[in-house]
Amino acid sequence: MTMTFMIPGPLRELAGNRSEVQLQGSAATVSEALALLWASTPAVRDRVLNERGAVRPHVHIFVDGESIRDSGGLASPIRDGARIFILPAVSGG
Hints:
Blueprint: E1 2-6, H1 9-12, E2 20-24, H2 30-40, H3 45-48, E3 59-63, E4 66-67, E5 82-88
Parallel strand pairs: 1-5
Antiparallel strand pairs: 1-2, 3-4, 3-5
């Protein structure tokens, strides 16, 4: 199974300056897919998940354009070829 993570600007340095990370592996849920991402880019984990393993409130994850908050959270299913977007909130003036 192949999945592509879209990495936003604020997290790219932690992902080897890549805007996309394409991974091969077995993952049926967002949680399993993220575990594959953490193996490849471990520094991103603490910016996305809190110490309890939940998605931080200011981070949004979308799978193929649908927010996981509306589709089952980290248990949301993914398909082969899924595009997973990680979007941290950006603030400032």
